[in-house]
UniProtKB/TrEMBL annotation:
Keywords: Aminotransferase, Pyridoxal phosphate, Transferase. This is DegT/DnrJ/EryC1/StrS family aminotransferase. Coiled coil: none annotated. The modification N6-(pyridoxal phosphate)lysine is found at residue 183. InterPro entries: DegT/StrS_aminotransferase, PyrdxlP-dep_Trfase, PyrdxlP-dep_Trfase_major. GO terms for biological process: polysaccharide biosynthetic process. GO terms for molecular function: pyridoxal phosphate binding; transaminase activity.
Length: 361
């Protein structure tokens, strides 16, 4: 048996070719072309958002969002993919870590409020909806309002996640998405930023094209972070089938949660948050048991990943940390299980049986 952790969505060649023919006929390959426009509109309507700017990846999405919102210092989560932190550090942003909530694994609003009460000098807050589980967006909004801070959500895991009937991307001043091949929806490499304010969107659109404005004049120095027409073609092809993809992934996710609920800890989901089936994390506190589970998965050829280990405050020791006790604890026992569109129900049952057997000893 060999069960893969992840398997990127494969675009249907017939459909993709039709879009590629359009690109060739248009003779327009990048710089906000016709397919770029269509993909932007389709994504805005599908996700229920406005002011969506496509960019070349999720890392630049974070950097451009910070630049557009004038964030030069930020309090952020230590429990996320490395890019949430490394992208900010690369940009010379002064960051400090504040701990996560022990049940949701997302940035803890109380700890954040405490950090800001001690040191209110930070410009912004950068939080991740880890595994697609929405942060406590209302509580974070309250803290942000109290201290007058901008909020960016790294929503790389949260494609099409809702809080109640509202897209999770509509919280905060900006939300960033990654359309990397390994993500739920992808354009091979790619991403997007959703801005609350049109003016921030306009500024960012200029920033991702070297800082050249609509009249061709030079403004603030920018960068090149545009998504090209060929990648938009992949996005358009995959977007057509994304409902069916998400449905299957959520079905597998729910089966995993049902099968494992009496055996392992799993993140507590936001009470109004929807599932997108992006990742399947479990937490096993006991090191011996965790190692046994890992060993048995390995023996059966089941891929898994210690995602996210280490806690980012450990990886970036020079940065200030207000608190990261929970993040360190969770990162020691976290394990992501196989979850992708091509995975079968029988695969999930195999994996959960291996885990149950390992834990029963
Ligand atoms: C994938 C990911 C990123 C980076 O996105 P890229 O498109 O690969 O640059 C950032 N943050 C999180 C949480 C991610 O999972």
């Amino acid at each position: 048996m060999n069960i893969l952790l992840n398997k990127p969505l494969k675009p249907e060649l017939d459909k993709l070719t039709k879009y590629l023919e359009q690109v060739n006929n248009n003779e327009w390959y990048t710089n906000f072309g016709p397919l770029h426009e269509i993909l932007t509109q389709k994504l805005e309507s599908y996700l229920g958002v406005k002011n969506l700017l496509l960019v070349s990846n999720g890392t630049l999405a974070l950097q451009v969002a910070c630049k557009a919102l004038d964030i030069n210092s930020a309090i952020t989560t230590p429990f996320s993919f490395v890019a949430t932190t490394s992208s900010l550090l690369w940009q010379g942003i002064d960051i400090a870590f504040s701990d996560i909530d022990s049940e949701s694994y997302n940035l803890c609003p109380e700890a954040l409020g405490k950090a800001l009460s001690i040191e209110p000098r930070y410009d912004g807050i950068v939080a991740t909806h880890v595994y697609g589980n929405p942060c406590d967006v209302d509580a974070i909004s309250q803290v942000a309002l109290k201290y007058n801070k901008k909020v960016i959500y790294d929503a790389a895991h949260a494609f099409n996640v809702k809080v109640g009937s509202e897209s999770v991307l509509n919280y905060g001043d900006a939300s960033t998405l990654s359309f990397h091949a390994t993500k739920l929806f992808h354009t091979v490499e790619g991403g997007a930023i959703v801005f609350k304010n049109k003016s921030d969107y306009e500024k960012a659109k200029q920033l991702i094209n070297f800082g050249i404005d609509a009249n061709g004049d030079l403004g603030e120095p920018g960068i090149n972070a545009k998504l090209n027409e060929y990648q938009c073609a992949v996005g358009l092809t995959l977007l057509d089938e994304i409902d069916q993809v998400t449905k299957h992934r959520v079905e597998l996710f729910e089966l995993y949660r049902q099968e494992l609920k009496d055996y392992v800890k799993m993140p507590d989901w936001h009470i109004k948050g929807s599932y997108n089936g992006a990742y399947m994390p479990i937490y096993i506190e006991n090191k011996e048991l965790l190692n046994k589970v890992i060993e048995n998965l390995n023996l059966s050829g089941v891929q898994h990943r210690r995602y996210f280990t280490p806690s980012l405050d450990v990886a970036y020791k020079k940065q200030k940390t207000f608190s990261a006790i929970e993040s360190r604890k969770i990162s020691e026992g976290i394990l992501c299980l196989p979850l992708h569109y091509y995975l079968k129900i029988s695969d999930v049952l195999e994996v959960t049986n291996i885990i149950k057997l390992a834990l029963k000893g």
